[in-house]
Specification:
single chain; 311 residues; Spore Coat Polysaccharide Biosynthesis Protein SpsA, Chain A; 2 domains; 8-stranded mixed β-sheet; binds uridine-5'-diphosphate; binds magnesium ion
Length: 311
């Protein structure tokens, strides 16, 4: 059986066309299919839509509904936990992950010695240029400073074996960054490429700033390099200041002290003060993550599932 996990946030317009497309593909597959829609605290009629789908196809449409918006990462985690299939795939509801790739992915995972078939976009057409630029920059940066390799353009859309999903579920951290987690667990992954597609309906929930903070999260979660940079900056400015102190000392001894130069002094104060705040900020980011982890809060709270609907 194949489980299809679909996180949905305000997708009432996209879900019907998504379901229709995947149902069309289903006929090409010999496998049974189960859908697990995760309603991530949508503010529109997504939940009603899912209830109706379950009524119509009770044997293959399952859903979970969160008590509020917990974010896509939480949705993925919940969906993977609920999935019962031997092969599990993760798809966006907006059809940006083309379902017509599925048969090929299934065939690859069954005939080749791999545990996961990922997908990546070769183009970023239809995306603002500035966003593509920063996305590329992010992948360069994270692959240079992080220990976990992340593939540029790789989507969350992937087909995985039961074994790999079980490993992913063993990572119960609160700060979840799926792109990192998928590659951290290892296993053999092959990538299929496809051209970027635009959303069928609705709007993306990602603004430039939310993507920026998401990528900072990704770096903090999978790399300790920023912490090292903070200590390098500290050591560097320390050594630098000792050298300049010597220079100033000898200069005063040789040429006397003409009490000039306080503007440059102020600049140095500001510079050093700024460095200290920057480093504190980096450390603070990590402490914030530790703080959230130690609370051991659940990653999501489920308010309703299809079982409640059956009663
Ligand atoms: N999503 C979610 N919770 C959120 C935001 C998004 O479950 O808080 C879902 C959304 O419904 C969609 C998928 O995550 O199925 C990808 O979202 P989106 O299309 O907005 O992102 P993009 O494709 O622009 O990266
Ligand atoms: Mg999308």
């Amino acid at each position: 059986m194949i489980s299809i996990v679909v996180p949905c946030y305000n997708e009432e317009e996209a879900i019907p066309s998504f379901f229709k497309e995947v149902e069309n593909i289903r006929e090409q597959l010999t496998h049974e299919i189960e859908y697990i829609f995760v309603n991530d605290g949508s503010k529109d009629r997504t939940l009603a839509c899912l209830r109706a789908l379950h009524k119509q196809y009770p044997d293959r449409v399952r859903y979970l509904s969160f008590s509020r918006n917990f974010g896509k990462e939480a949705g993925l985690f919940a969906g993977l936990q609920a999935a019962k299939g031997d092969l599990i795939t993760v798809m966006d509801a907006d059809l940006q992950d083309p379902p017509d790739l599925l048969p090929q992915m299934v065939q690859m995972i069954e005939t080749e010695d791999i545990d996961c078939v990922g997908t990546r976009r070769t183009t970023r057409d239809g995306e603002p240029a500035i966003r593509s630029f920063f996305a590329r920059l992010f992948y360069k940066l994270i692959n240079r400073i992080g220990e976990t390799e992340m593939v540029d353009g790789a989507r969350d859309f992937r087909l995985m074996t039961r074994q790999m999903v079980d490993s992913i579920l063993e990572l119960t951290e609160y700060n979840r960054f799926s792109k990192g987690i998928f590659s951290w667990v290892g296993y053999n992954t092959k990538y299929l490429s496809y051209e970027n597609r635009e959303r069928v309906a609705g709007e993306t929930t990602w603004s430039f700033w939310s993507l920026l903070s998401y990528s900072i999260d990704g770096i903090i979660n999978f790399s300790e390099v920023p912490l090292n940079i903070a200590s390098y900056i500290g050591a560097f400015s320390c050594i630098g200041s000792v050298i300049t102190m010597m220079v100033i000392l000898f200069r005063t001894l040789i040429y006397g002290d003409p009490t000039s130069g306080w503007p440059s002094m102020v600049c140095i104060f500001l510079f050093v003060g700024g460095l200290q705040l920057l480093c504190l900020g980096i450390i603070g980011k990590y402490i914030g993550k530790i703080f959230m982890e130690t609370k051991k809060r659940p990653v999501f709270i489920v308010k309703e599932t299809e079982k409640d609907n059956d009663k």
